[in-house]
Design brief:
The chain has 288 residues and is α/β, with parallel strands linked by helices. The chain is 48% helix and 12% strand. The chain has 11 helices and 8 strands. Strands 2-1-3-4 form a 4-stranded parallel β-sheet, sandwiched between helices. α1 crosses α6 and α6 runs parallel beside α11. The longest helix has 28 residues.
Length: 288
């Protein structure tokens, strides 16, 4: 992957020429959180804001390098998910901007951890608090505004935790299977156990799952030993499609999830709609 490097001045910058903070985020759902806290006291630019772009395979442009070099705050997921942003940011390690690696600096995770941390219900609240501290330090004049925005944003996120708690209380079968470890943090919060980690990790890494893993997973589906099968619809592998089809034929519900935020939805709407699929499955199980 070609990474573009851009030099920048070494003076710590407290906002752009208009005094407002410039934030650049690798992906839009983190950019949304930054905008919620920043309000009209700065600008937020998300490099990836299309559901059709894979952050893990993205190759940055010259314009991206310029955005990063000119930013006051650079925000990215880390844990190998958006490595290209890490390299762009490190090219300016002596420059004016402050870099926030959500995985290691906000969630205190180590290399090798599941990178899909936006599905962890603690990520956005912790990130919002971190951003409030950073913005207040760079722009003390508007500290009270950032703190008010934080309270509003945290209030909005509360519905998600309530939804997860309700799902956990209503679960019946505790075992589920997944095509990839995308939705795992939400599943853990719901109280479900993933039974096919080896299969899911192989798909995530782009390698072939072992025949044994495939056989065991197909057996769990046909014998209805799982509450549902979670399909990352952005993975188009034949094996995943085959398993989703088998699940439907076997009467096992399929929960469809994505790695990127759908267009015309915000973070809360995105999470809630996916979780609502699990709620409906639980309702159906109760009525049977």
């Amino acid at each position: 992957m070609a990474i573009l490097f851009l030099s920048a001045c070494t003076n710590q910058k407290q906002g752009g020429s208009d005094g407002k903070i410039k934030v650049v985020s690798s992906v839009d759902f983190y950019g949304e959180a930054a905008k919620a806290i920043l309000g009209n006291h700065g600008t937020v630019t998300s490099i990836i804001k299309s559901s059709s772009v894979d952050a893990e395979d993205y190759e940055p442009q010259v314009s991206d390098a310029k955005l990063v070099a000119d930013a006051d705050v650079v925000l990215y997921n880390g844990l190998g998910y958006d490595q290209w942003m890490s390299k762009l940011a490190s090219a300016n390690d002596k420059a004016k901007n402050e870099t926030i690696n959500v995985g290691t600096q906000v969630m205190n995770l180590k290399s090798g951890a599941n990178p899909h941390i936006w599905y962890d219900s603690e990520t956005m609240p912790k990130l919002a608090k971190r951003l409030t501290t950073v913005f207040s330090k760079k722009d003390p004049t508007h500290q009270k505004a950032y703190q008010r925005n934080l309270k509003t944003y945290l209030k909005k996120l509360e519905s998600l935790q309530s939804q997860l708690d309700q799902i956990k209380e209503n679960r019946d079968l505790k075992q589920v299977a997944v095509s990839e470890p995308v939705f795992n943090y939400q599943l853990e919060a719901m109280g479900y156990k993933v039974i096919d980690p080896h299969f899911a990790e192989a798909v995530e890494e782009g390698s072939d799952p072992s025949p044994k893993d495939i056989r065991e997973l197909r057996n769990a589906i046909t014998k209805k030993q799982i509450a549902f099968f979670v399909e990352n619809t952005q993975n188009t592998s034949d094996e995943v499609k085959s398993l989703a089809k088998l699940a439907k034929q076997s009467g096992v519900p399929v929960v469809k999830v994505t790695e990127t935020m759908p267009p015309h939805e915000d973070y809360v709407e995105w999470m809630e709609k996916q979780n609502q699929q699990v709620e409906k499955i639980q309702e159906m199980a109760t009525n049977d």
